[in-house]
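Hey,
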Amino acid sequence: MSKANDLLKAATKAAKKANKKNKFNARKVEYDGHKFDSQAEYERYVSLRDDQKDGKIIRLEVHPKFELVVNGVLIRTYTADFKYTIVRNGAAIRRVVEDVKSPPTAKLDTFRMVKKLMLAIYGIEVKVVLKKDVTIPSGIGKDGMVLR
């Protein structure tokens, strides 16, 4: 009977973990081989991917990693949402590292510190795109399906 109780406890624990909500109520989305932490991040990806197809940006990377090292000590590894290069008149003019955030997460001390470290170490100012400013590109439904 003990083995059955152990299995029941394990199954209950797994079910609770699977149903656990994100503390910011974000819904994860899988699309195009990527896992996005929120609907807004996914929607921003679709928009950037379209910009790349239109030649407005190049070298779009999803979830690029940056080692934040100070005086030879790894402080942490930062994973941004996107990295890309803006193109004007056929010339690459600026590299952008971008993170999609809700207003509360953009204000968190840990994220503000990461932004400062990125600027100090790499000379990169992380662009924050607020979720409220992300729009679904025309022709794409909220579920990621192409509308016709």
